[in-house]
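dude i think i finally got it to work??
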Amino acid sequence: MRPDLAVVTVVRGRLDHLAAQQTALSAQETGHERVVVQMGGPDVRPALGAADVTLVRLGAEPDRLPLAAARNAGVAASTAAAVVLLDVDCIPAPTLLARYADALTRVGGVVAGPVGYLPAGATTGGTAPERLARLAVPHPARPVPAAGQLRRELRYELLWSLSLAVSRADWDRLGGFCEDYTGYGGEDTDFAWTARRAGVPFHWVGGAWAWHQHHPVSDPPYEHLHDIVRNSELFHTRWGEWPMVGWLAAFRDAGLVEWEPTAARCRVTRSARVAAREGAVAW
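look at this
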């Protein structure tokens, strides 16, 4: 019998994070298939354990993450009636898949659970769910409904791709992620805007926790400067407004781009790597 859910994870590196995630998926009571899409980098097979995983290898440039294409490839390789997108950094709570399956049955559309962020070193002491739940800090800008509660959300800009679920029928209706986005940034907001335009509802699922494993980040993400500028211009062309305005403003203030919210273009004026070597930005 075809499983009800497929869990799709895209990855480059971070094999320890992948291993922790896959171990937690093995403890889920809800039947599911798994698809892992490797976007270059080291071989992921040692991190998959003994689980039955469909592995998709996607060619990728060393300095670019083809996130939209990778997620689409993962869903295309699955056979389940609904798909869960779960970033490699996310460890699912024991009931995540069950709550997603229930939510899709009750309200359909796109559903997303809360994400709790773990401090550095949190998983070195083990990944027992009770421990991770105690250590995790919820994202301050996203709702955290009570367990079992479904909350309709009209602010589609809050939809994130690191943990969400959608039926295959709605996925096909939306056409997946727009692959004109060829690197990091913008593709998930475009997916959210597409869902809003199509009238596909978006709900938060209380209790569908994913615990985000710690890793170093730069804010703004200078390493993705060119991707973010290119994808922001694409988004502006498609939707008539700018995404990621906080990052664009930070790049502007650092002297890396020429951009204003009312502008029609965003132009890179300085390499982030050069600026970092000169001490102009902390990266």
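The first helix runs from residue 15 to 26.
im so relieved honestly
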